[in-house]
Amino acid sequence: MTLTHSQHTTPDGLVPTLSVRELKLSLPLYASVQAGFPSPADDYAAEPLDLNDYLVKDSACTFFVRVKGDSMIGAGIYPGDILVVDRSVEARHDDVVVALVNQQFTVKRLYRRRDGIRLVAENPAFAPITIGGNDELIIWGVVGHVLHKPTKL
User: Catalytic pick from 71, 88, 149, 152?
Assistant: First the structure.
């Protein structure tokens, strides 16, 4: 078994887009909104919110990827969602990761135990991927944020 934290290229030699465009987008961030019973409205912005600061820790090591498939719906990741993935973060047990398993990309939850490594879906219709002695696993990055619409428009 080979476990690697990749910093460079895909198996076909292509270099993925790793940097996030340095676009400064500052939008108003309101203090709060109730998800339960309504409360009096705040008519002021607490502070501006820069999406780069909120979503990206290291722009040189961060990329976006669109999700295909429904193996991670239990983690709130749906087909068509955009993942914000950071390649500079060391993957830990229970992180959601983008991984390359035997030269095929997938997004799964990483389980590291004494008995081995598994990539686990968040949908019971999908079996875990157990990494065996002949498998190659490259952790491409750790998912930091999921961007999706509350309803498909």
Answer: 71
